Amino acid sequence: MSLFDHLSLVEDTRSHINQRHNLVDVLFLMLSVVASGQDGWAEIQQLGELKLEWLRKFRPFANGISRRHTITRILKAVGPEICSCAYSVGLTTSAPHLLNPSLQLMVKHLEVPLS
């Protein structure tokens, strides 16, 4: 399965009126930014806006980049599932202390247990 196949397995729990930004787009944005070493919600939005052209090579981002508060709400809603997805695609290890420090911060902020 591709990364996008895995990300599409994460259930979108938002109501249909709150789905302006595609969930897979937001998850891909978050993973891309964290993989680049950024560690905050504002950085996700800022880097997403700077790299939107590159991101659109992989996903449509039809409504552009979500605002940081929207990103936070979306990721908190799917926190446990995105961590499970991250495990399945090899983005984390079985030892949480070995995670990328940026991902550790995100997971801590989401209050998602890693074990």
UniProtKB/TrEMBL annotation:
InterPro entries: Transposase_11-like (IPR051698), YbfD_N (IPR032806). It comes from the Bacteria. Residues 5-81 form the H repeat-associated protein N-terminal domain. PANTHER family: H REPEAT-ASSOCIATED PREDICTED TRANSPOSASE, PROTEIN YBFL-RELATED. This is H repeat-associated protein N-terminal domain-containing protein. It comes from Shewanella baltica (strain OS195).
